[in-house]
Every structure is written in C-alpha cells, then in structure tokens.
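Notes for week 9. Today we move from apo structures to complexes. The key idea is that a small molecule is not decoration. When we ask for a structure prediction with magnesium ion present, the ligand SMILES becomes part of the input, just like the chain. The input block below holds both the sequence and the ligand string. Read it once before you look at the output, and try to guess where the molecule might sit.
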Amino acid sequence: MTIAVDFDGVIHAYSKGWADGTIYDEPLPGALDGLRALMDRAAVFIFTTRPAVDVAMWLERHGFSTRFDFDGTFWNDRGVLLVTNRKLPATAYLDDRAVRFHDWEQALTALGMTSRLLDCGFCYEEWGEEVHPHPECPVTAPEGEQAAPVDWQAVVRQRERELKAVGEQKHAAEQERDGAYRERAQLLALLAALHPSVIAPAPDVDEDGWQILYLRIGGKQASWHIAPRDAELYAHVEHVPVDDRRAQWDGHTTEAKYAHIGEHAVRLYAEARGRAETPTSGKR
Ligand SMILES: [Mg+2]
C-alpha cells in the first residue's frame, strides 16, 4: 500500500500560509507520530510543490530518513520518506485542501459552484456568490455592488423611437412595393389591349374586389391577379363572370408563363425585324 501525504497544512503547521516561501512553522500536533504510524504499514511519499530538498531537510531534522531523487513510477519503499512534486500512484492522498470526488454534480455542490435561485425569486447564486441583476429584486444587494437604478422612462422613449423608425421603414418598403405593382398593372393593361383578354372575379382570394386578368399570348394562356386599387386600369377589358370558359385557369405555373412570354417576345422581335429588312434585302 502506498499513501501520499501533503506537506503544508498536514505535516508543516503552515499557520501563516505561504508567507515568504520558507518552511517557517513547527509540525502540526500529532503529525510526526502519525507519519511514523503510517510508515509502519505503508510506503509513504510526501507530495508537495516546494523544492523537494527543502522539505527533505526539514523532515530529516525531525528524525526521518528521506529521499528526493526517485524517478520511478511506483513508490513501494517502507521506512524511507520520498519527497516529490510528481503525482505518483497511491491508495489514498491525505490533503488539507482535498474534496472527495464521487461525481461532478456532487463535486460542484461540494465546491459551492452550483447555481441556485435565491429566495427573492429573481436572483441567483453562482460560483458561491449572490447575483442580484434584477431591478425589481426586493433583496438589497450588498452596498456598492447594487446596479444603478433603471430609468424606465428613458427605456420607454428609446423603444418608442425604435418602433417609429421600424414603422417608417415598413411604410417606405410598402410604398416601393405598391409603386412596382402599379407599374405592373399599367403594363398588363397595355398587354390586355394588344391580345385577346378577359377579366373575371378571383375565386381564390377572400378579400373583395380582386380579379384575374386572362390573356392569350402566342396561343397560350397567361393570367395575373389584379388588386382592387388597380381595377380602373382595366375598364377597356371585357368583364366576364367567374364561370366564363375564357376565365378558366389552364394550370400554367408562373415559371412556365414567363418562359413562354420570353420565347414569344424573341419570336415577335425576330419577325418584326425580318419584315423591316425584307424591302432592303436586295432580292426583288
Ligand atoms: Mg496543503
């Protein structure tokens, strides 16, 4: 059996702590007899961060034979005290600063490092200290650590300014969107005048006044929803009931509609240019 024994606070009384770094104190009461009793039954080494030679000399002065030159892993010698700063294997470590570990929850509790809600219901204890961040906490935090009182009026004014700015941004974005819809509506009104077209109530929109404009462009159907505010742009288009056969959606998707319109536009343009060039092509 091997037992590790801490030096300061276990053998050396250490009544003033580290102080100037010297080994200034007497042995703790019972320390020398205790060490001898241990050494009768086990190999013992002293585990310390002090220079091993200092501790060994102190122990020699108190009647022990020591070693401090061991570079092995397992210390098994009885009758001689090894002094080392290496954490060698041992059956037990005797230390005035030790916390026995079972599991992490127990260890953190033992170290006072678990959070718990304080009685006020707002604040908590963390790492062993009370934290009172809540402005309405009825428990007064220690003087000097109390947070400055919150100026709720200023907070409200700031929130109101932020809300107003967001409202203005929203309004500007809506203006821009509605402007784009208006331009779309005017161009569709022009297209409706150039192609076979009808307009009918929109059965798929709950809000009153919405309509769907159906055009035949290049032999295919294309349709658009028209908002109530743009309705007056389509006065020239034939208005039909929702069950008119020309007002039945043929299942085209938005992507297919614009793909067809794009191809049709290219074709129209090529045809128009062909007509324009024919008289000057030189073939009479
Ligand atoms: Mg100690």
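The chain has a mean pLDDT of 89.
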